[in-house]
Amino acid sequence: MKTQSGLIALLLFCCFLIFFACRGPNQPEPLYAPNFQKPRVTGIVLTDTEGNAVMVWGNPNGKVVADKDKTGDFLRMYLPYPNPTNGSVFIEYVLRTPSEITMWIVPAVGPNQERTNIGHFGNADFFSPGGVAIKVFFREEQRSPGGYRVHWDASEVPAGFYRAYIKTDGLLVWQDILIIRKKSDIPPGFPRNIFGEGLP
User: Fold this and answer.
1) Is the Cβ–Cβ distance between 98 and 67 less than 8 Å?
2) What pLDDT is stored for residue 58 in this prediction?
3) What whole-number distance in Å separates Cα of residue 186 and Cα of residue 46?
4) Considering the domain 27-187, what is its CATH architecture?
5) Residue 84: CA atoms inside 13 Å, Cβ hemisphere, count?
6) Neighbouring C-beta atoms of residue 80, cutoff 10 Å
7) What pLDDT was estimated at residue 103?
8) Contact 43/60 with Cβ under 8 angstroms?
9) Most trustworthy range by pLDDT among 107-116, 131-140, 151-160
10) 79 pLDDT band (50/70/90 cuts)?
11) For labeling, which of 8, 34, 122, 131 is most exposed (least CB within 10 Å)?
12) Is beta strand 99-107 parallel, antiparallel or unpaired with respect to 135-143?
C-alpha cells in the first residue's frame, strides 16, 4: 500500500513539473507570496473612501522588508481605500527614485483561519504552493519618481482577506485588504456597527 501511495505522490509531482514546464515561451512565471504560503492578516486599518484612517482592527501587519535602512526614502505604500470594501479599492504608492517595480495581489487568511499548503490525493499528501497571485498589475516595469494610484476591481473574487505587494530594488512592501459583501462575510471580532444597514 505504501508503494502505491508513493507512486501516486510521484505521479502528482511529475504532473506539477510538467504543468510548469509547459508554459508558453511568453507566459510569465506565476508570482507568489513569500514562502509560498497564504499570508496571515492579523488586523487592518479601516479607511474611508478618501483614504483617511477611521479605526484599527487587531494588530495590522502592513510592513516594509528592506535591505536598506531608510526605506521611506525609496518606496512608500499607503493604506488601501476604502478598506474594507465590497469590491473596488485604490492603492497608492510613491517612488523616490527611478525603479523597476512589480505589483501583485494574493489571497490571505484571517487571524483564526487555518493556513495549509498540504493537498491530499487518495492516501498521499503533497505540497501545494499557496499564496498564488490572483492579480498582477505590472511586472518589472520601469517607473519614474512620483506618486501613483492603482485601482483594483475585485468584484470577481470571493469575499475575504487579500494582501497587495509592491517589490522593487530589494524592497518588499505590503498592505492588507478585506472584502465584505454580506453580513456573514464579517470576520469574528470585527466591528459590525461600521456598516449600518448597508449589508444584506
Assistant:
1) no
2) 87
3) 13
4) Sandwich (2.60)
5) 24
6) 26
7) 92
8) yes
9) 151-160
10) very high
11) 122
12) antiparallel
Q: Is 131 helix (H, G, I), strand (E, B) or coil?
A: coil
Higher-pLDDT residue of 131, 76? 76
Structure-model confidence comparison of residues 99 and 15, the more confident one: 99
Please state, rounded to an integer, the average pLDDT across all residues of the chain: 76
Q: Any bridge partners for residue 171, and if so which?
A: 168
Q: Are 72 and 86 in contact (CB under 8 A)?
A: no
What are the grid coordinates assigned to 185, written together?
Answer: 462575510
| Cβ-contact 185, 160 below 8 angstroms | yes
- 176 neighbors 44 (Cβ within 8 angstroms): yes
Residue 106 has pLDDT above 80, yes or no: yes
Q: Are 53 and 79 in contact (CB under 8 A)?
A: yes
91 beta partners:
150
Beta bridge partners of residue 177, listed in sequence order: 162
| CB environment 30-39: b (16+ within 10 A), e (fewer) | ebbbeeebbb
